[in-house]
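Journal club side-thread
Mid-discussion, someone asked how the predicted structure for our own chain would compare to the paper's figures. Pasting it here so we can look after the session.
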Amino acid sequence: SAVAMSSTCPGLYCGRMMVNGSAEGECGVCPRGERTNLQKICERCTESPELYDWLYLGFMAMLPLVLHWFFIEWYSGKKSSSALLQHVTAMLECSVSAVITLLVTEPVGTLGIRSCRVQMLSDWYTMLYNPSPDYVNTLHCTQEAVYPLYTIILIYYAFCLVMMMLLRPLLVKKIACGLGKSDRFKSIYAALYFFPILTVLQAVGGGLLCESRLLTACSQCACTGTDACPSLSFRLCISLHHLGLVIGHAGCLHVCL
């Protein structure tokens, strides 16, 4: 074909495989974990994520935890002891999920990851840049040019959901006996709603979030009224439950930074 015989591949993300030191085959999508270089050759990604990439991963990883804490607090009422244990369990779920996600991501078995350097916003949305060399047939070169920033979050969310379904129902059934049968599992039901929303957010807006460098610090939202700062600070210090939330938020942010 004309595309196969041309010196370079069309489009931004189409490339050829390197075999025995020479580019061979037709132009097409690069394998996962590779992306095209300036010569339109599929090249293995061997770089480490930049600081902004780690900040983005940390921010997206904290979202489920913060939402877990919010809905646990919202539906637990004044059951501070049971709510606190659920907060700890939610942190354990997310922490274990994060470790497992890193271990199954290349290089497998280590807590480090190798990545393709993000060069432009279009790297996140390669499905929108499939070229049509003859204006009739489309050459499909959709790939994860930002490997693994796009899929690693989705894998993490999947592990979080599995860990929650394995641990939380048994815990809630044991410790939340004071709540009604319809209320004790509401924080779990809420997670079944916000996980699909987070997945869509990552799939559609992940590139916009990462490239805009919009990282928000998690802070404890006081739901007990509009107190003045001194009064609110005093009540926070004497409440182990609220103080634990603040320390947890600060710890998560410190890990990301």
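Post-session note: The chain has two domains: 46-125+144-211, 212-246.
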